[in-house]
Design goal:
single chain, 220 residues, alpha/beta, Arc Repressor Mutant, subunit A, four-stranded antiparallel β-sheet, 8 helices, 41% helix, 20% strand
Length: 220
């Protein structure tokens, strides 16, 4: 039975989260003293951490940064913030996923299950054009530096990379994103692909995603 540590200062939300997880078959514990939360976290037997960004006395992203110096325990950020910068910063500090409040309980449980499954699977290094792909951190890195992708951008990139050289339809990309988001429309998919293309161009991979009209996209 997996153990999940909840780091959430809002007591009703913390209790609601704990009950949801217990009902789903997980063991839970929680940080309740936020004056010095790090020692409590480091001593926890948690298999996964749910971490809020807005905490008293400490910023959740900074706390994540400190956690990653000591632990590789999977961390999902659970926050009311919707700023893309917070998501990028969280992923760059080592978050394994990021979900915003109010969340769909079923979606949250699916995300927890997916992260636990990934963390227990044998690690496999992914590469693309000499770049190392770290899907958990949301980064592509190489001699030219490190590129940080948002969660949606990495999902799109991984879906294309898994089928490199093959046409991936918009419906296939939407399905991949649906498993990780409560809702993303067709326009949002176009925006995410445009941003991904621009970021890839920054590290010398311009024109790496080719559009096949009425068919989909190919990662070259």
């Amino acid at each position: 039975m997996s153990h999940i540590l909840i780091i959430e200062d809002d007591v009703p939300i913390r209790k609601e989260l704990s009950q949801l997880l217990v009902n789903a078959g997980y063991e839970t514990s929680a940080v309740t003293d936020f004056s010095e939360p790090l020692p409590q976290i480091l001593s926890s037997p948690a298999d996964l951490i749910l971490l809020d960004i807005n905490l008293p006395n400490v910023n959740g992203e900074m706390l994540l940064h400190e956690i990653r110096k000591e632990l590789d325990t999977p961390v999902i950020m659970v926050t009311s913030r919707t700023n893309e910068l917070d998501e990028v910063l969280s992923m760059s500090y080592g978050a394994d996923d990021y979900i915003t409040k109010p969340y769909n309980p079923t979606i949250l449980l699916l995300r927890i299950s997916a992260v636990l499954k990934r963390s227990s699977a044998p690690s496999k290094q992914l590469t693309y054009r000499g770049l190392t792909v770290d899907a958990a951190k949301g980064t592509l890195s190489g001699a030219g530096g490190e590129l940080i992708l948002t969660k949606n951008e990495m999902i799109i990139f991984r879906t294309l990379l898994d089928r490199q050289g093959q046409i991936v339809s918009r419906d296939q990309l939407m399905t991949a994103l649906w498993d990780n988001e409560e809702y993303i429309n067709d326009n949002a998919l176009t925006v995410n692909i445009s941003r991904l293309r621009a970021k890839l161009a920054e590290i010398g991979c311009a024109e790496s995603i080719e559009t096949r009209k009425k068919q989909g996209y190919v990662l070259l």
